């Protein structure tokens, strides 16, 4: 709690300064009509919002603010920035939706600062479980509202709902589902004489060797962007760490398991193998994601590990024309099934301190009603695979992986969703030493991960 | 021939009779080589910017390597950038934000520098260093306490809140420039006449001293204007409506992240659009800029 | 007489600036001291006081030493190389060369672009195999297989320093150029008559007269270097490994990625003290040089 007197002096200072501002600014700013508009419509996210009894939301004029992470649509209308405000206005004439969109790194900084200062938007974007800006943190800190009473939960897959829940109650609405996988160049595979798709780790290595022997770079990875490592690593972990111990992370959090577990060392070793054998493009530490994707779409590398969200980039037209395919990295031993690396995508959360919480909920109910124009626009714009009942798969390319996910249920989430943010970064930084040719061992990587996990977890 | 090694000695003029060197081919060659060297260096300076231009002139879905220069000439990316940024609104927002901030910076910094330059006491020296010390603290570090401070003062987060931070963060460098300039470039004598006329301090400052500060004011406007114009950090902290975004914040929307690919062609077009007003302003102000910074820096 | 012309009431002129400065800069900075002894995560509404644990963790961990040494390398190289290149360019442009004004404008252009764009372009320039430098070397027939500017532990830091220099050298040069133009021509003429060669003229005539420009440029690039953040953030994410982690980048990562705002504040305070110390020492040194020169 801040002391009263400090606050009073502060207000006095402010008054002084505003006078100064008004005096100096009037010359160039006098004809700004927007100026007055802001003051009246700004969200007062103060504690007074507790008075939720007001149900006359259909008549009262309300301005909702919404912030999401992402990139503006290159052409046509952007869902969050253009379509949603327009359609919400059509359905609720008294509601004005003001939206903004930032890339995730900037979004994280901005939204945390806004929430911490009580200026959070009414609707914002959260990530599953413990991810950065994860739903668990937001719910625990009291920034995300309990959404149990929304109308459409029956239509959302159980897994997606659980990944956005805290203590059994949903606090976020998942935007969909994402797979990690291997995008590959079918033409180059044929050229190298690979007739059968690899089903397990030995045959995957064999395929890589064939490509390499044919003078083709097997895999391009963007290790200059450290997070890129996760795209391969989590697929391996899904087949090494979790198959016989699905509750590994629960035990980890309870302190019964540790990240220096041999299974994680084995995971790191497999990844290392790809580099040791020269299957990954050389100098990958100098490539950013844009450049690694460039190699793939130009037909200079046969594979790239990436997620379903990068569909547009990886299917864009580059220097070469070829047919793409998509499969789950078979890091499993021979005779074992391949586990799909699949995780719930980010989604909407509502600000628990918003005084317009009820209105925001109505908007969400409308957005996810399964039939409105808004819903259709949403499913059309969403780059993730829908977790809403009855919505068709968005891209044919992912059909096989999607079928295998739906039919045999062998899938593992992305491990970092169960770690505090910072552990994955530690893994990336340590593993970069291996890529860079230092003498770091897989065990040293897992030890560093474990130390970071312990340091950060006690703060949770 | 080994005499004059100090500047003082060299000041003494000597007979300049046999000094003119005859014209020779060697000198011409040297001069041409120099000219060539300059051109090469300048080209190095420009190549990356040529890449920007070339990339921005591609349509948004042309994903070939940006080093294939000018393999397409299309304004499609510019059109996209222009529309999706709401260029008109964003430009207006930028102009308003930058203009108000720069105006306030000039007024506050010039005024604050006046006593620091004129009064010779330990206090004024302390004040000078106190402001200067602010230069070394990076904004990223203090962002959260700043926002909490602004919030606890009850100042709402609006389109204009970033101005507070733009002004504050510009003060250290601007007072540094102004103080140096007043100390060295505006002798106290100019004020005496006004003092004798009975003008008060305030009028004396604004009518006599400030008009003499125009060169350094231009430097302040350029140096502070550039960073304020380009800043997205404070803007993104306080502004949460896209209709209120200035250019850099609107531009940020084209930048990708881990799960959203960057639309480089559009981003570069947006960047050119964002830099264009600056380029224009700079080409008009540049000759003042050099002057101001020099005079201001004669004795820091 | 002086005291009646220059009244102490003048101090009131500093009040508006001081108000802004204290409220929005100095006071928030002092808040960091408070946070540095807590486990505040940057967004929760509660936190606990944990004494000097954050400081202890920092001194025992590897981040502090690593980021300090990276920052110092970044600073020293960008100050020395940046100033030398800037001075060389200024001397070059100060000669009788056609189109001087045009070149001067060109060299200032990089400054006008945002760091995001600059970082991206240079990633392509540095890209292995098909990047600009690699292609150029290919054309010259120079093998460049092991060229990996941003991806090798030994060169990543220097590569981003070069970008920093590239972006700022225009400003440095303009300040030097302006300084050079204050060197009186008759002085140079006199030196030439005295038989000074180009080097001697530079060392004994121009450099002493450039002292102020040098001080300004050094101070500016010193502060820039110590605050280095943009290029590690945009171009390398601190990598490979932690080889381009600067102090400010580490603070940012700690505060906003790992959500340890308390620990980040502690690191902030340590680096704050370091930056002030380094700047103060160099400014004092330069002032002494300037006076004696």
Automatic annotation (TrEMBL), chain A:
Residues 29-38 have a biased composition (Polar residues). Residues 29-54 are annotated as: Disordered. Residues 1-22 form the signal peptide. It comes from the Bacteria. Residues 39-54 have a biased composition (Low complexity). Keywords: Cell membrane, Lipoprotein, Membrane, Palmitate, Signal. It holds the Pfam family SBP_bac_1. This is Extracellular solute-binding protein.
TrEMBL record, chain C:
It is a multi-pass membrane protein. It is found in: Cell membrane. Keywords: Cell membrane, Membrane, Transmembrane, Transmembrane helix, Transport. The keyword Iron does not apply. It comes from the Bacteria. CDD domains: TM_PBP2. Its main location: membrane. InterPro entries: MetI-like, MetI-like_sf, UgpAE/MalFG_permease. Residues 68-282 form the ABC transmembrane type-1 domain. The keyword Transmembrane helix applies. The chain crosses the membrane at residues 12-30, 72-93, 105-127, 207-226, 264-286. Belongs to the binding-protein-dependent transport system permease family. This is ABC transporter permease subunit. It comes from Paenibacillus phytohabitans.
């Amino acid at each position: 709690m801040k002391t009263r007197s400090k606050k009073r002096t502060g207000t006095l200072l402010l008054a002084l300064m505003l006078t100064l501002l008004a005096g100096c600014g009037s010359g160039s700013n006098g004809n700004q009509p927007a100026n007055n508009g802001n003051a009246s419509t700004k969200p007062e996210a103060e504690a007074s919002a507790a008075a939720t009894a007001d149900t006359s939301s259909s008549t009262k004029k309300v301005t909702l603010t919404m912030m999401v992470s992402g990139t503006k649509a290159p052409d046509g209308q952007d869902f969050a920035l253009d379509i949603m405000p327009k359609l919400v206005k059509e359905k609720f004439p008294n509601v004005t939706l003001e939206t903004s969109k930032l890339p995730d790194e900037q979004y994280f900084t901005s939204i945390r600062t806004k929430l911490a200062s009580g200026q959070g938007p009414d609707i914002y974007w959260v990530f599953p479980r413990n991810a950065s800006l994860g739903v668990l943190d937001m719910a625990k800190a009291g920034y995300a509202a309990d959404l149990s009473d929304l109308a459409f939960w029956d239509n959302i897959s159980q897994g997606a709902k659980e990944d956005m829940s805290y203590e059994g109650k949903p606090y976020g609405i998942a935007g969909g589902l994402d797979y990690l996988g291997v995008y590959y160049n079918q033409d180059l595979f044929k050229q190298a004489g690979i007739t059968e798709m690899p089903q397990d780790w030995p045959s995957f290595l064999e395929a890589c060797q064939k490509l390499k022997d044919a003078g083709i770079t097997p895999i391009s990875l963007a290790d200059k962007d450290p997070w890129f490592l996760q795209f391969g690593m989590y697929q391996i972990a899904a087949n090494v760490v979790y198959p016989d111990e699905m509750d590994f992370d629960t035990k980890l959090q309870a302190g019964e398991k540790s990240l220096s577990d041999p299974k994680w060392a084995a995971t790191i070793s497999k990844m290392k193998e790809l580099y040791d054998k020269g299957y990954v493009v050389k100098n990958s530490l100098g490539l950013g994601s844009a450049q690694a994707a460039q190699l793939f779409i130009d037909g200079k590398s046969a594979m790239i590990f990436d997620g379903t969200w990068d569909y547009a980039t990886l299917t864009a037209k580059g220097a070469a024309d070829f047919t793409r395919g998509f499969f789950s990295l078979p890091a499993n031993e021979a005779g074992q099934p391949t586990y799909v690396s699949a995780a719930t995508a980010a989604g909407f959360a509502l600000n628990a301190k918003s005084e317009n919480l009820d209105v925001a909920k109505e908007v969400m109910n409308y957005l996810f009603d399964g039939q409105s124009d808004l819903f259709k626009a949403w499913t059309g714009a969403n780059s993730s695979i829908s977790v809403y009942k009855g919505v068709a798969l968005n891209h044919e390319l992912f059909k096989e992986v999607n079928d295998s996910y739906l039919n045999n249920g062998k899938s593992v989430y992305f491990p970092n969703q169960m770690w505090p943010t910072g552990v994955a970064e530690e893994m990336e930084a340590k593993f970069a030493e291996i890529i860079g040719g230092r003498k770091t061992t897989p065990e040293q990587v897992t030890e560093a991960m474990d130390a970071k996990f312990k340091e950060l977890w006690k703060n949770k | 021939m080994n005499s004059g090694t100090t500047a003082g000695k060299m000041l003494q003029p000597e007979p300049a009779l046999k000094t003119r060197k005859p014209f020779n081919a060697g000198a011409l060659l040297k001069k041409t080589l120099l000219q060539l060297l300059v051109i090469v260096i300048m080209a190095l300076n420009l190549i990356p910017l040529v890449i920007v231009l070339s990339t921005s002139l591609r349509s948004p879905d042309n994903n070939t390597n940006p080093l294939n220069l000018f393999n397409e000439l299309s304004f499609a990316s510019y059109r996209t950038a222009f529309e999706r940024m709401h260029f008109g609104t964003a430009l207006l927002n930028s102009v308003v934000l930058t203009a108000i901030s720069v105006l306030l910076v000039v007024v506050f910094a010039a005024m604050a520098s006046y006593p620091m330059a004129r009064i010779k006491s330990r206090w004024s020296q302390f004040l000078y260093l106190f402001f200067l010390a602010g230069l070394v603290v990076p904004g990223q570090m203090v962002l959260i306490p700043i926002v909490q401070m602004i919030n606890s003062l009850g100042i709402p987060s609006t389109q204009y809140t970033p101005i507070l931070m733009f002004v504050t963060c510009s003060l250290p460098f601007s007072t540094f420039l102004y103080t140096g300039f007043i100390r060295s470039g505006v002798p106290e004598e100019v004020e005496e006449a006004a003092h004798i006329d009975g003008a008060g301090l305030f009028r004396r400052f604004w009518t006599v001293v400030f008009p003499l500060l125009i060169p350094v004011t231009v430097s302040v406007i350029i140096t502070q204007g550039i960073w304020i114009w380009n800043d997205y950090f404070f803007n993104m902290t306080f502004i949460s409506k896209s209709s209120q975004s200035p250019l850099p914040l609107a531009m940020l929307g084209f930048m990708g992240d881990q799960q959203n690919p960057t639309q480089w062609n559009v981003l570069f077009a947006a960047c050119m659009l964002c830099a264009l007003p600056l380029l224009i302003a700079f080409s008009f102000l540049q000759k003042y800029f050099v002057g101001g910074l020099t005079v201001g820096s004669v004795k820091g | 007489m002086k005291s009646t012309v220059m009244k102490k009431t003048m101090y009131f002129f500093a009040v508006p600036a001081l108000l802004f400065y204290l409220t929005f800069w100095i006071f928030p900075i002092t808040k960091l001291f408070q946070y540095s002894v807590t486990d505040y995560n940057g967004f929760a509404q509660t936190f606990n006081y944990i004494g000097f644990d954050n400081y202890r963790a920092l001194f025992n961990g590897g981040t502090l030493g690593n980021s300090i040494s990276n920052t110092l390398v970044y600073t020293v190289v960008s100050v020395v190389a940046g100033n030398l290149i800037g001075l060389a360019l200024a001397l070059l442009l100060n000669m009788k060369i056609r189109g001087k004004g045009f070149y001067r404008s060109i060299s200032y252009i990089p400054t006008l672009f945002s760091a995001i764009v600059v970082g991206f372009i240079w990633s392509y320039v540095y890209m292995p195999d098909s990047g600009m430098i690699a292609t150029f070397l290919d054309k010259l027939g120079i093998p460049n297989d092991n060229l990996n500017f941003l991806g090798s532990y030994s060169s990543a830091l220097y590569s981003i320093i070069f970008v920093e220099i590239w972006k700022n050298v225009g400003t440095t040069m303009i300040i030097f150029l302006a300084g050079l133009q204050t060197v009186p021509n008759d002085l140079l003429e006199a030196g030439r008559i005295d038989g000074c060669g180009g080097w001697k003229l530079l060392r004994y005539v121009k450099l002493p007269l450039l002292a102020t420009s040098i001080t300004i440029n050094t101070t500016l690039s010193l502060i820039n270097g110590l605050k280095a953040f943009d290029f590690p953030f945009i171009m390398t994410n601190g990598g490979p490994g932690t080889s381009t982690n600067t102090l400010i980048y580490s603070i940012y990562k700690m505060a906003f990625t790992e959500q340890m705002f308390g620990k980040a504040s502690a690191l902030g305070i340590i680096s704050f003290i370091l930056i002030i110390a380094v700047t103060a020492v160099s400014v004092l040194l330069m002032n002494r040089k300037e006076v004696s020169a």
